[in-house]
Protein backbone atom coordinates (compact mmCIF):
# COMPACT_ATOMS: atom_id res chain seq x y z
CA UNK A 1 0.00 0.00 0.00
CA UNK A 2 1.31 3.45 -0.92
CA UNK A 3 1.01 6.62 1.15
CA UNK A 4 -0.49 9.18 -1.24
CA UNK A 5 1.08 12.08 0.66
CA UNK A 6 4.68 11.13 -0.03
CA UNK A 7 4.64 8.15 -2.37
CA UNK A 8 6.18 5.79 0.18
CA UNK A 9 4.88 2.33 0.90
CA UNK A 10 3.46 1.52 4.33
CA UNK A 11 5.76 -1.05 5.89
CA UNK A 12 5.40 -3.01 9.15
CA UNK A 13 7.03 -1.10 11.98
CA UNK A 14 7.63 -1.64 15.69
CA UNK A 15 9.01 0.74 18.31
CA UNK A 16 11.16 -0.44 21.21
CA UNK A 17 11.89 2.65 23.24
CA UNK A 18 14.17 4.78 21.09
CA UNK A 19 14.62 1.97 18.56
CA UNK A 20 12.48 1.61 15.42
CA UNK A 21 12.34 -1.80 13.72
CA UNK A 22 10.94 -2.43 10.24
CA UNK A 23 10.32 -5.36 7.91
CA UNK A 24 12.47 -8.45 8.62
CA UNK A 25 14.11 -6.80 11.64
CA UNK A 26 10.85 -7.05 13.62
CA UNK A 27 11.16 -9.95 16.10
CA UNK A 28 8.30 -12.44 16.52
CA UNK A 29 7.77 -11.56 20.21
CA UNK A 30 7.59 -8.46 22.42
CA UNK A 31 9.68 -7.53 25.46
CA UNK A 32 6.69 -8.13 27.76
CA UNK A 33 6.18 -11.60 26.31
CA UNK A 34 9.83 -12.55 26.83
CA UNK A 35 9.69 -11.31 30.42
CA UNK A 36 6.43 -13.02 31.41
CA UNK A 37 6.20 -16.15 29.25
CA UNK A 38 7.21 -19.32 31.16
CA UNK A 39 8.35 -20.87 27.86
CA UNK A 40 11.45 -18.71 28.14
CA UNK A 41 12.60 -20.30 31.42
CA UNK A 42 16.08 -20.85 30.02
CA UNK A 43 16.53 -17.06 29.92
CA UNK A 44 15.60 -16.42 33.56
CA UNK A 45 19.14 -16.74 34.89
CA UNK A 46 20.94 -15.30 31.90
CA UNK A 47 18.77 -12.33 30.89
CA UNK A 48 16.24 -11.31 33.56
CA UNK A 49 18.77 -9.44 35.69
CA UNK A 50 19.70 -7.34 32.67
CA UNK A 51 16.03 -6.82 31.86
CA UNK A 52 15.68 -5.25 35.32
CA UNK A 53 18.05 -2.50 34.19
CA UNK A 54 16.00 -1.93 31.05
CA UNK A 55 12.84 -1.71 33.17
CA UNK A 56 14.54 0.77 35.48
CA UNK A 57 15.56 2.86 32.48
CA UNK A 58 11.94 3.02 31.32
CA UNK A 59 10.85 4.29 34.73
CA UNK A 60 13.61 6.91 34.69
CA UNK A 61 12.66 8.01 31.15
CA UNK A 62 8.99 8.31 32.08
CA UNK A 63 9.56 10.13 35.35
CA UNK A 64 12.03 12.55 33.79
CA UNK A 65 9.83 13.31 30.78
CA UNK A 66 6.54 13.75 32.61
CA UNK A 67 7.66 15.43 35.83
CA UNK A 68 6.95 18.94 34.52
CA UNK A 69 3.45 18.22 33.22
CA UNK A 70 0.63 20.46 34.41
CA UNK A 71 -2.26 18.72 36.21
CA UNK A 72 -3.40 15.96 33.86
CA UNK A 73 -6.26 13.56 33.18
CA UNK A 74 -5.83 10.09 31.67
CA UNK A 75 -8.41 9.28 28.99
CA UNK A 76 -8.99 5.68 27.89
CA UNK A 77 -10.99 4.16 25.07
CA UNK A 78 -10.86 1.88 22.07
CA UNK A 79 -8.21 2.12 19.37
CA UNK A 80 -10.76 0.52 17.03
CA UNK A 81 -13.38 3.27 17.24
CA UNK A 82 -14.01 5.08 13.95
CA UNK A 83 -13.32 8.84 13.75
CA UNK A 84 -17.01 9.60 13.19
CA UNK A 85 -18.24 7.36 16.04
CA UNK A 86 -20.10 8.93 18.99
CA UNK A 87 -17.30 8.01 21.39
CA UNK A 88 -14.65 9.68 19.24
CA UNK A 89 -16.73 12.82 18.96
CA UNK A 90 -17.20 12.78 22.73
CA UNK A 91 -13.47 12.19 23.27
CA UNK A 92 -12.54 15.17 21.09
CA UNK A 93 -14.96 17.41 22.98
CA UNK A 94 -13.63 16.08 26.27
CA UNK A 95 -10.01 16.69 25.27
CA UNK A 96 -10.83 20.28 24.35
CA UNK A 97 -12.79 20.91 27.54
CA UNK A 98 -10.01 19.49 29.71
CA UNK A 99 -7.45 21.66 27.95
CA UNK A 100 -9.59 24.74 28.46
CA UNK A 101 -9.84 23.86 32.16
CA UNK A 102 -6.04 23.75 32.41
CA UNK A 103 -5.44 20.00 32.26
CA UNK A 104 -3.06 18.06 30.10
CA UNK A 105 -4.62 15.04 28.40
CA UNK A 106 -2.84 11.67 28.64
CA UNK A 107 -3.84 8.77 26.40
CA UNK A 108 -2.26 5.57 25.14
CA UNK A 109 -1.23 7.56 22.08
CA UNK A 110 -2.95 5.27 19.57
CA UNK A 111 -5.78 5.75 17.07
CA UNK A 112 -9.54 5.81 17.72
CA UNK A 113 -10.71 7.35 21.00
CA UNK A 114 -7.13 8.08 22.04
CA UNK A 115 -6.39 10.07 18.91
CA UNK A 116 -9.66 11.97 19.23
CA UNK A 117 -8.90 13.02 22.82
CA UNK A 118 -5.35 14.07 21.86
CA UNK A 119 -6.69 16.03 18.90
CA UNK A 120 -9.27 17.83 21.02
CA UNK A 121 -6.64 18.86 23.54
CA UNK A 122 -4.13 20.01 20.93
CA UNK A 123 -6.65 22.00 18.93
CA UNK A 124 -7.77 23.74 22.13
CA UNK A 125 -4.19 24.78 22.87
CA UNK A 126 -3.57 22.24 25.65
CA UNK A 127 -0.82 19.71 26.31
CA UNK A 128 -1.42 16.36 24.62
CA UNK A 129 0.50 13.30 25.87
CA UNK A 130 0.71 9.82 24.38
CA UNK A 131 2.09 6.81 26.24
CA UNK A 132 2.58 4.12 23.59
CA UNK A 133 3.34 0.43 24.05
CA UNK A 134 5.20 -2.17 22.01
CA UNK A 135 2.57 -4.47 20.46
CA UNK A 136 2.66 -6.93 17.55
CA UNK A 137 -0.04 -4.89 15.79
CA UNK A 138 1.23 -1.50 16.90
CA UNK A 139 0.33 1.54 14.76
CA UNK A 140 2.60 4.08 16.44
CA UNK A 141 1.76 7.34 18.20
CA UNK A 142 -0.92 9.47 16.59
CA UNK A 143 -0.04 12.82 15.03
CA UNK A 144 -1.76 14.88 17.74
CA UNK A 145 0.63 13.89 20.52
CA UNK A 146 2.90 16.71 21.77
CA UNK A 147 4.87 14.57 24.23
CA UNK A 148 5.15 10.88 23.43
CA UNK A 149 6.91 7.95 25.06
CA UNK A 150 7.01 4.39 23.71
CA UNK A 151 7.24 1.75 26.43
CA UNK A 152 8.28 -1.88 26.24
CA UNK A 153 6.55 -2.92 29.46
CA UNK A 154 2.87 -2.53 30.26
CA UNK A 155 3.39 -2.16 34.02
CA UNK A 156 5.77 0.78 33.55
CA UNK A 157 3.29 2.48 31.25
CA UNK A 158 0.45 1.89 33.73
CA UNK A 159 2.45 3.56 36.47
CA UNK A 160 2.76 6.69 34.33
CA UNK A 161 -0.98 6.74 33.61
CA UNK A 162 -1.73 6.77 37.33
CA UNK A 163 1.14 8.81 38.74
CA UNK A 164 0.53 11.89 36.61
CA UNK A 165 -3.28 11.88 36.50
CA UNK A 166 -5.78 13.81 38.60
CA UNK A 167 -8.58 11.60 37.24
CA UNK A 168 -9.40 8.78 34.84
CA UNK A 169 -12.07 9.16 32.18
CA UNK A 170 -13.04 5.90 30.49
CA UNK A 171 -14.90 5.84 27.18
CA UNK A 172 -16.14 2.74 25.32
CA UNK A 173 -13.34 0.26 24.72
CA UNK A 174 -12.26 -3.36 24.86
CA UNK A 175 -9.98 -5.48 27.04
CA UNK A 176 -7.25 -2.85 27.31
CA UNK A 177 -9.74 -0.21 28.40
CA UNK A 178 -11.31 -2.59 30.92
CA UNK A 179 -7.86 -3.41 32.26
CA UNK A 180 -7.12 0.25 32.94
CA UNK A 181 -10.58 0.83 34.40
CA UNK A 182 -10.41 -2.00 36.94
CA UNK A 183 -6.79 -1.23 37.81
CA UNK A 184 -7.79 2.34 38.64
CA UNK A 185 -10.76 1.24 40.75
CA UNK A 186 -8.63 -1.31 42.60
CA UNK A 187 -5.91 1.23 43.39
CA UNK A 188 -8.45 3.71 44.76
CA UNK A 189 -10.43 1.02 46.63
CA UNK A 190 -7.31 -0.32 48.34
CA UNK A 191 -6.04 3.21 49.05
CA UNK A 192 -2.85 2.65 47.08
CA UNK A 193 -3.49 6.06 45.53
CA UNK A 194 -5.18 9.18 46.83
CA UNK A 195 -8.81 8.93 45.83
CA UNK A 196 -9.48 10.54 42.46
CA UNK A 197 -12.49 10.49 40.12
CA UNK A 198 -13.00 7.50 37.83
CA UNK A 199 -15.60 8.62 35.29
CA UNK A 200 -17.37 6.42 32.77
CA UNK A 201 -18.63 8.15 29.63
CA UNK A 202 -21.00 6.35 27.28
CA UNK A 203 -23.73 5.38 29.75
CA UNK A 204 -25.47 2.94 27.40
CA UNK A 205 -22.21 1.15 26.66
CA UNK A 206 -21.36 0.64 30.33
CA UNK A 207 -24.88 -0.11 31.60
CA UNK A 208 -24.60 -3.90 31.20
CA UNK A 209 -21.32 -4.05 33.11
CA UNK A 210 -22.68 -1.86 35.90
CA UNK A 211 -25.84 -3.96 36.14
CA UNK A 212 -23.72 -7.10 36.46
CA UNK A 213 -21.60 -5.53 39.18
CA UNK A 214 -24.72 -4.57 41.14
CA UNK A 215 -26.70 -7.76 40.56
CA UNK A 216 -23.83 -10.24 40.91
CA UNK A 217 -20.84 -8.80 42.76
CA UNK A 218 -22.76 -6.57 45.16
CA UNK A 219 -25.52 -9.09 45.76
CA UNK A 220 -22.96 -11.79 46.55
CA UNK A 221 -20.97 -9.53 48.85
CA UNK A 222 -17.92 -9.36 46.61
CA UNK A 223 -18.03 -5.56 46.59
CA UNK A 224 -19.71 -3.00 48.82
CA UNK A 225 -21.99 -0.05 48.15
CA UNK A 226 -19.09 2.29 48.85
CA UNK A 227 -17.07 0.55 46.13
CA UNK A 228 -19.77 1.39 43.59
CA UNK A 229 -19.45 5.03 44.57
CA UNK A 230 -15.93 5.01 43.14
CA UNK A 231 -17.49 5.09 39.65
CA UNK A 232 -19.31 8.09 38.26
CA UNK A 233 -21.26 7.92 35.01
CA UNK A 234 -22.10 10.80 32.70
CA UNK A 235 -22.41 11.57 29.00
CA UNK A 236 -22.07 15.30 29.65
CA UNK A 237 -18.56 16.59 28.93
CA UNK A 238 -19.03 19.70 31.05
CA UNK A 239 -20.23 17.60 33.97
CA UNK A 240 -17.25 15.26 33.66
CA UNK A 241 -14.80 18.17 33.74
CA UNK A 242 -16.64 19.77 36.67
CA UNK A 243 -16.39 16.53 38.65
CA UNK A 244 -12.62 16.63 38.16
CA UNK A 245 -12.33 20.34 39.02
CA UNK A 246 -14.43 19.88 42.17
CA UNK A 247 -12.37 16.87 43.27
CA UNK A 248 -9.16 18.87 42.83
CA UNK A 249 -10.60 21.74 44.87
CA UNK A 250 -11.70 19.40 47.65
CA UNK A 251 -8.28 17.76 47.77
CA UNK A 252 -6.54 21.15 47.89
CA UNK A 253 -8.82 22.25 50.73
CA UNK A 254 -8.09 19.07 52.65
CA UNK A 255 -4.36 19.53 52.16
CA UNK A 256 -4.66 23.09 53.45
CA UNK A 257 -6.17 21.86 56.73
CA UNK A 258 -3.37 19.42 57.45
Task: Give start-end ranges of low-pLDDT stretches.
Answer: 1-9
Give a count of the beta strands, DSSP E runs of length 2 or more: 9
Overall shape: it is: globular
- Do you know the CATH topology? Rossmann fold
Cα gyration radius (Å)? 19 Å
- Please give the CATH class: Alpha Beta
The largest sheet, given as strand count, sense and whether it forms a barrel, is: 7 strands, parallel
- The domain tally reads 1
Order of secondary-structure elements: EEHHEHEHEEHEHEHHEH
Summed over residues and divided by their number, the pLDDT gives a mean of 87
* Helix content bin: 40-55%
Strand content: 5-15%
> How large is the count of helical segments?
9
Distance between the termini: 61 Å
Structure classification: alpha/beta
Provide the CATH architecture.
3-Layer(aba) Sandwich
Structural features, described:
It catalyses: N(6)-(dimethylallyl)adenosine 5'-phosphate + H2O = N(6)-dimethylallyladenine + D-ribose 5-phosphate; 9-ribosyl-trans-zeatin 5'-phosphate + H2O = trans-zeatin + D-ribose 5-phosphate. Its EC number is 3.2.2.n1. Keywords: Cytokinin biosynthesis, Hydrolase. It is an enzyme of class 3 (hydrolase). Pfam families: Lysine_decarbox. The structure is a single chain. This protein has 258 residues and is α/β, with parallel strands linked by helices. The chain has one domain: Rossmann fold (3-Layer(aba) Sandwich). The protein contains nine helices and nine strands. The strands form two sheets. It has a seven-stranded parallel β-sheet with strand order 6-5-4-3-7-8-9, with helices on both faces. It has a two-stranded antiparallel sheet with strand order 1-2. Strand 3, helix 3 and strand 4 form a beta-alpha-beta unit. Helix 3 packs parallel to helix 4 and helix 3 runs parallel beside helix 9. It is globular. The termini are far apart.
